[in-house]
Design goal:
heterodimer; A: 15 helices; disordered C terminus; B: alpha+beta; 4-stranded antiparallel beta sheet; 6 helices; rod-shaped
């Protein structure tokens, strides 16, 4: 990849028309030969191989039981919850980009929202594996739902864990709906372009018979905007509720009021890092540089920096809170984090999440794709370490020194973690192949608006001499 | 005037445009000329087009509101029934009707049902999924989802018999009549 590209304010580069957009994006699905490149095949094979590690570790887990993992009392939560929180956090950037930036009329989101939404869904799928398998008996996971049963039992609605069930399931459902709804008009475009006898009927089914009528678009836009409005508080609530799993308890290091905002910022931080981590190689592989421009990369890097500062503020506040509380158990935990046997995890976290993102202050470094990619990688690792620091480190020291016990993850912990990364990569690369990775109709809309804006500017700021849409007398319904 | 047999066999007369501006202008002209059963087709949503064809609809927001309300009531009712009536558990003498603890689930149910309302309401009102529609027989209509813009006057229009001539006057492109 070219490490440096010029930065300008154009959101769409080159001489683009509706037809070139269809070609660039649509042909990635319709012309499968475009994926016969080494980068796609190699990455997919690595991901697919790691997916098998996941299947093997799940098989061994179900055969033996969750004793193959390193978590044991007092650390009842280990890699399973670390990875659950990590994955769900990564997903949040997708919703942020597609919903919050839509409400704020940030048009630059149009070229990355589809990709980020797909990332959300796959990250939630990966996240869901952990609590599901941590139950030990995933085949009775439906016990989590409130339904009348012969056990005559109901879930405890005052527990953050059941709130989590509702939050994550709602989040997964709404994310899938949002994504599929965005795909309908694009599948219609692909249906109308497809010549392949197998692809055409499949695309026809996926497009639900969309015909792009003005009445359809009218309701579609209403529904899409409302869905964005609903997703915005949803995404904030999901990680808030995830943070309640900790904050509502009385464990030292968890019982902190700063957790909800700090978790939400951390989620966006990790999510933008993951978007950058994926989009930088993919835009190079499929020559999408005209559509995902350096302007996009620059803004994403800035958001990463901003949320990183919020997260860093959270770290400072956590330490301050422990000191200011004067609570000996909180102070003991603080010392355990700073200088205990897990000190490398804590200080690496500060390095990756606190120091490395500061490179993004420099505009020149934001234009260097290599640096942006490495920083994103650092943030991704750092956010994983953050959850490690919060979860097992807090559990290994307790109110009663006799129940202190070290947490040491096992081979199977790492195998399953690598396995979900494999699952994620596999799903992501199949998505790149079989669905339009950039929202085609929104790009056309953006192109049209940019064109109008340019015309307006050329005319010296005068508005279009368009006939006003007033309904003359007698021409009503 | 109602062209009896014609109504049964024809769906619409359709004309094609190259730019959204042309379509918008033509749609406004057609409405001003008194056509009422207008429909426009475009690859992306065009601002002002639904006003131009005389279409106004606010059902989706109402469905979303009703969905959200249903979700909120259902979520709260479920928790109150479970925690107070069917399975009361005394934890440290705390009240059974602990409303603050019921907020998160109520909130999630609100969002879930409202979102169902938005997506399924939109699909139902639009009559989707519908695999085939007469408009797909229009010549070149596959480009309506790519880079062409179509205006149709449907057969139910009282002035349908004048439609062909009127649309022909708007553009040099051929006007197609599509069977129902």
């Amino acid at each position: 990849m070219a490490p440096k590209e010029p930065l300008n304010d154009e959101l769409i580069l080159g001489q683009q028309s509706n037809a070139t957009l269809d070609n660039t994006i649509g042909d990635l699905v319709l012309d499968q030969k475009k994926h016969n490149n080494k980068a796609w095949v190699l990455t997919f094979l690595v991901g697919f191989g790691m997916l098998h590690l996941f299947l093997a570790s799940v098989a061994w887990l179900l055969y033996t039981g969750i004793g193959i993992w390193g978590n044991n009392i007092p650390s009842g939560w280990g890699f399973d919850i670390i990875n659950f929180v990590w994955w769900i956090g990564i997903g949040h950037a997708g919703t942020l980009i597609s919903a919050i930036l839509l409400l704020m009329r940030q048009q630059w989101r149009n070229s990355i929202n589809r990709f980020a939404e797909a990332m959300t869904i796959f990250a939630v799928i990966c996240a869901a594996q952990y609590p599901l398998l941590h139950t030990g008996r995933p085949w009775v996971a439906y016990w989590l739902f409130p339904y009348p049963n012969i056990l005559a039992m109901w879930p405890q609605f005052r527990s953050p864990l059941i709130w989590d069930v509702f939050a994550v399931n709602t989040y997964a459902t709404v994310s899938v709906l949002f994504w599929l709804m965005g795909l309908i008009p694009d599948f219609a475009t692909l249906r109308d372009r497809a010549t392949n006898k197998i692809a055409k009927p499949i695309l026809g089914i996926l497009s639900f018979g969309w015909r792009g009528s003005a009445r359809h678009w009218h309701r579609y836009e209403q529904a899409y905007l409302l869905l964005a409005g609903l997703s915005t508080p949803l995404v904030l609530s999901v990680h808030t509720i995830v943070s309640y799993d900790f904050a509502v308890s009385i464990v030292p290091g968890w019982n902190v009021t700063v957790f909800p905002p700090y978790f939400v910022a951390g989620a966006v931080f990790a999510g933008f890092a993951m978007v950058l981590l994926l989009i930088i190689p993919i835009r190079a592989m499929y020559s999408l540089k005209d559509l995902v421009t350096m302007r996009h990369i620059d803004w994403m890097a800035k958001i990463m920096l901003a949320t990183g500062l919020i997260v860093f503020y959270g770290y400072i506040l956590e330490a301050f809170y422990a000191w200011y509380s004067g609570n000996p158990y909180e102070l003991k935990l603080l010392q355990w984090r700073f200088t205990g046997p897990y000190w490398p995890a804590y200080w690496l976290l500060i390095f990756f999440n606190g120091i490395v993102p500061q490179l993004m202050w420099n505009p020149k470094w934001r234009q260097n794709l290599m640096i942006v990619w490495v920083v994103s990688m650092g943030v991704t690792i750092g956010m994983w370490l953050e959850r490690f620091v919060i979860i097992p480190i807090s559990l290994t020291v307790n109110y009663l020194p006799s129940s202190d016990r070290m947490y040491i993850p096992t081979f199977w912990d790492f195998a399953m973690f690598a396995g979900t990364i494999g699952l994620f990569v596999t799903l992501m690369f199949l998505f790149v192949r079989f669905a339009p990775i950039i929202n085609i109709f929104e790009m056309k809309d953006l192109l049209h608006k940019l064109h109008q804006e340019k015309q307006r500017k050329d005319k010296g700021g005068k508005p279009e001499p368009e006939a006003p849409a007033e309904v003359p007398a007698g021409a009503g319904e | 005037m109602a062209p009896g047999p014609k109504k049964a066999v024809q769906h619409a007369v359709v004309v094609e445009f190259e730019t959204p501006e042309q379509l918008l202008k033509a749609a406004n002209q057609a409405r001003e000329a008194g056509f009422t059963k207008l429909e426009a087709y475009s690859p992306f949503p065009i601002h002002g087009l639904s006003e131009a064809i005389g279409f106004h609809d606010e059902k989706v927001p109402w469905i979303v509101a009703i969905g959200g309300l249903t979700g909120a009531l259902a979520g709260m009712a479920l928790q109150i029934y479970v925690s107070v009536i069917d399975y009361p558990m005394n934890v440290g003498g705390k009240p059974l009707l602990s409303l603050p603890a019921f907020i998160p689930v109520t909130f999630e149910c609100t969002i879930l049902f409202a979102s169902f309302g938005a997506v399924f309401g939109m699909m139902a009102l639009n009559g989707l999924p519908r695999p085939h529609h007469p408009i797909f027989d229009t010549p070149n209509f596959e480009r309506a989802s790519q880079d062409r813009f179509f205006l149709a006057v449907e057969a139910e229009d009282p002035k349908y018999s004048e439609a062909q001539a009127f649309l022909g006057g708007l553009t040099t492109a051929t006007v197609a009549e599509v069977a129902a």
